[in-house]
Amino acid sequence: MDARSPSSSRQSPWLPFESRRRARDEKREAVLRTAVQLFLEQGYHRTTLNDVADRLNITKPALYNYFGGKDEILFECWAIGNERVDDCINEIAAGGGTGLAKLRKLIVSYAEVMTTDYGKSLVRFDVRDLTEHNRRVVNTAKRKIDRAFRDYIAEGIADGTIKPCDPKLSAFAIAGSLNWIGHWFQPGGPMTAEAIAEEFAIRLTAGIATTSTRKKADKPPGKIKTSREDRDEHHARTAPRAAGQSKRTRDRLR
Amino acid sequence: MDARSPSSSRQSPWLPFESRRRARDEKREAVLRTAVQLFLEQGYHRTTLNDVADRLNITKPALYNYFGGKDEILFECWAIGNERVDDCINEIAAGGGTGLAKLRKLIVSYAEVMTTDYGKSLVRFDVRDLTEHNRRVVNTAKRKIDRAFRDYIAEGIADGTIKPCDPKLSAFAIAGSLNWIGHWFQPGGPMTAEAIAEEFAIRLTAGIATTSTRKKADKPPGKIKTSREDRDEHHARTAPRAAGQSKRTRDRLR
DNA sequence: ACTATTTATTACCTATGGGTAATATATGTG
DNA sequence: CACATATATTACCCATAGGTAATAAATAGT
After folding, report:
1. Where is the HTH tetR-type domain (chains A, B) (predicted)?
2. Which of A88, A243, B114, B212 is most buried (most C-beta within 10 Å)?
3. What pLDDT digit, counting tens, does each position of B153-206 carry?
């Protein structure tokens, strides 16, 4: 759709040196999309802002129209991934179900997020590259996720769907398996993200569930999420910024 | 033992600027011990060679008497951790037992290594910081570890101690949980490394073992390792170098 | 004690890359 | 069309940190 310019290279809204329109947010997102790819490919420290700019057909200083610095770009990438996980947690919390059912939903959602670029950000990026402030934001968010796992396990133990166990340790074990997905998963492999997510939901709870195994009381007719329409990329978010905005240049604009 | 010098600061063989003797290898190891600590504390890229040297009461160029460069230090740290895991794998391979028993032994050993500094190196350091050559060495070693997990699972399925499942995916799930230990474990917590290792060995196999749960046919009287005498630090290794030796200065010496 | 070798130190060099200033080019508005 | 605004570009700056050269201080051997 939208066959406009003579140049054919997709992916960058800045066509080699011609028509440049499109909204600001769309460009912001293009920067993040490119940045997260490069950060994952080469690692944050080995990726220069010139690398990012080059791949977008612009120059380094242009990036500063959208971000205050390299670390802020890193933070925003992380923020998108976190937002996705956070949405899942909130949806699960809103819906009902047993502790085990909620835990499985969380595993499925979290596993799927882990197979996306922004999801990988959550486990492949180093918090210590962020500013003091953003680091705190990240740590708070991580605690929330950890809390969700532990709470659902505790709920499951309380309602009898999960065998008595140490919620903390079990949460670590489960989260570890899921986080690891962010390190090995590559689209195009033998299994789809959804298949892996489903499989993990069963496997990771097989040891602690009271109801022996395989599909049971989870998935009540009105399914909660699972489908996920906006596959990867794009995410709207025009207003909900305001979180990052670290140090440096930020006053001279606006 | 060995109350010699007036200065009391332990940890560094280079006492503030006085008696300097001791063998070369002991100093080499002191460098690695300090480096791995700093790399874990601050991250590889945020740690400068001056940081390492300072903590040892020496200056940066002195490090080059023992290592060819920063990345070589990183590699050696990794190598020590890998050596420990490799020893475990070889011992397990030498001993007998069912597939499940071997898998559990591997989980226990691997988990324990993951709680040490050098063990953490295996999962916290980025392979891309190494030279092409060393990167290949690391990748080969990682494949061997992955192989061990998969093979024992496959053996277990064959001998009936493990339920039919996809060895690859199960290995990823288990390894993920274990690798995650390297990210959250801190000595001094409520659980000891050994307790965590034992717990994980049970938990991570509970879902796939055929023999319902809890201790069973594992641990045949003649126990294999588990005790581990040389707790942390030190590791002898005087000869078995020769692996690293990347690019740069290496000719001018010797 | 004299010499050779090892192992430090001081003083540099230099590439890299994040960030900035000054300026140009679109874009859109009255 | 002129003017304001947003958004690029070119040309810099400069701190950092890995690495090296020249040299001094230990240590060992004879």
Report:
1. 25-85
2. B114
3. 999 999 999 999 999 999 999 999 999 999 999 999 999 999 999 999 999 999
pLDDT over threshold 90, residue B254 = no
Residue B244 pLDDT > 90: no
- Yes or no, beta carbons of B179 and A180 under 8 Å apart: yes
Enumerate the β-bridge partners of residue B71: none
Q: Is the pLDDT of residue A74 over 50?
A: yes
* Domains, chain B, with CATH or none: 24-67 (1.10.10.60), 78-206 (1.10.357.10)
In chain B, residues with a C-beta closer than 8 Å to the C-beta of A175 are 180
A-chain residues near B164 (CB < 8 A): none
| Residue B65: CB less than 7 A from any atom in strand C | yes
Distances (CA, A) of A67 to A137, A254, B153: 18, 13, 48
How far is CA A226 from its chain centroid? 15
Instruction: List the nucleotides on chain C closer than 7 A to a protein CB.
Output: 6-11, 16-22, 26-28
User: What pLDDT is stored for residue A23 in this prediction?
Assistant: 75
Neighbours of B176 (CB within 10 A): 25
**Length of chain B counted residue by residue:** 254
- Scored b (16 or more CB within 10 A) or e, B202-222 reads bbbbbbbbeeeeeeeebeeee
Main-chain dihedrals φ then ψ at residue B75, nearest 5 degrees: -60, -40
Q: What is the pLDDT of residue A41?
A: 98
**CB B112 within 8 Å of CB B228:** yes
| Residue matched to tokens 């020496």 | B58
Write out pLDDT tens, residues A158-196: 999 999 999 999 999 999 999 999 999 999 999 999 999
Handedness of CA A137, A138, A140, A144 (dihedral sign): positive
Site of tokens 């959550």: A122
